[in-house]
Inverse folding.
């Protein structure tokens, strides 16, 4: 939380000279006046207060006003403006605040006298963000709906770490696509099936794939085994359990545990790409390949089914575990369950972008808001932020 201006001013009054020069403060004001280019709102950063302070010359009043405006800008550019509660199922551990603490960014701007360059360096490095920025600049002010959509999706990039690195997997849920990025370039993209709307929506995550499991065993989650009564149905139909490769048992306390053995009917298919996280989300194959042809393949319980998962897994264990493709194929064909740890875990980012360049490198496209997460995020931009002197951090630790 920022200190009230009166308190900050009192602290600054004890200093021999102003921290902010008139030139630096004017550069800050110019950046605020042009912040619409970044999809943010100039009025959020108290330009009138800063302008009056500049007219008052250097000193405690200017320091207080400039510190407050600069700090607010850093927080929004680095962490995102959208309040956490308006982000949907966002559970990203974003360490940008640790890498670029506000005090250090402020000190750098004052030391170098490069206010605009210091702030611009907080922008996400993703090419998609740059494409959205160009699109916003080319969208007429009268087209408020498209500008609002661009604004929200630019902010979504700020909810992630600023830099994804050179090698990673990126899933855009509304596009139903996974990009495999190597050396900064998309080397392949895959169709995916994502979670159904509601309680089984696929969350926004930043995790790391740590292992590839060939011919995996599926331990059926309790919400499916118990909540959807799969266990009860299988107990009542032993023939159906055998056909599906299920092992079912009733545990102490009455709960039913269900495990599906590897085989042609296994829900996970022949490959599971494991990325340990608190939400039980991972990537996997599926025997139901026809579902990728659905117009809206939001059909899972949250995990992500990947078309061509064997090819993706083969590439991962080849580059991250030094296992040749022939060895992978032999294990898969033999039906053996094998857990292959990745000595170099692969970052996996799961995002929710309803406008952006298509995964095959195409032009900007609009994707369906399958979970209804656009309106709350867009509405948050219509609510003015709290007065800077009383403003609190809006980006908290993942829920």
């Amino acid at each position: 939380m920022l200190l009230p201006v009166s308190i900050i001013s009192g602290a600054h009054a004890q200093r021999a000279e102003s921290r902010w020069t008139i030139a630096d403060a004017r550069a800050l004001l110019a950046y605020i006046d042009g912040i619409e280019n970044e999809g943010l709102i100039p009025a959020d950063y108290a330009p009138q207060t800063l302008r009056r302070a500049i007219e008052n010359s250097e000193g405690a009043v200017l320091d207080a006003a400039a510190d407050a405006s600069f700090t607010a800008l850093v927080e929004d550019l680095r962490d995102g403006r959208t309040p956490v509660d308006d982000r949907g199922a966002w559970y990203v551990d974003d360490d940008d605040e640790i890498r670029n603490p506000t005090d250090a960014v402020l000190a750098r701007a004052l030391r170098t006298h490069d206010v605009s360059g210091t702030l611009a360096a907080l922008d996400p490095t993703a090419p998609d963000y740059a494409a959205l920025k160009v699109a916003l600049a080319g969208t007429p002010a009268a087209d408020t709906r498209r500008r609002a959509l661009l604004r929200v999706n630019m902010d979504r990039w700020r909810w992630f770490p600023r830099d994804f690195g050179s090698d990673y997997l990126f899933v855009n849920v509304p596009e139903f696509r996974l990009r495999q990025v190597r050396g900064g370039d998309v080397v392949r993209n895959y169709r995916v099936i994502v979670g159904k709307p509601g309680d089984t929506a696929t969350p926004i995550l930043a995790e790391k794939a740590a292992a590839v499991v060939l011919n995996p065993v599926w331990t059926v989650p309790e919400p499916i085994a118990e909540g959807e009564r799969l266990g009860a149905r299988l107990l009542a139909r032993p023939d159906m359990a055998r056909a599906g490769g299920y092992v079912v048992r009733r545990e102490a306390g009455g709960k039913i545990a269900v495990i599906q053995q590897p085989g042609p009917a296994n829900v996970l298919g022949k490959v599971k790409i494991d990325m340990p996280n608190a939400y039980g989300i991972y990537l996997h194959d599926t025997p139901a390949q026809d579902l990728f042809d659905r117009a809206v393949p939001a059909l899972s319980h949250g995990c992500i089914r990947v078309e061509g998962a064997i090819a993706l897994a083969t590439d991962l264990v080849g580059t991250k575990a030094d296992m040749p493709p022939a060895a992978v194929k032999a294990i898969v064909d033999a039906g053996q369950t094998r857990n292959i740890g990745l000595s170099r875990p692969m970052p996996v980012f799961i995002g929710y972008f309803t406008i952006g360049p298509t995964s095959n490198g195409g032009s900007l496209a609009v994707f369906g808001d399958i979970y209804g997460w656009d309106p709350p995020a867009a509405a948050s931009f219509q609510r003015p932020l709290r007065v800077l002197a009383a403003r609190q951090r809006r980006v908290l630790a993942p829920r």
DSSP finds 15 helices and 14 strands in the chain. The mean pLDDT is 91. Residues 227 and 394 are 35 Å apart (CA to CA).
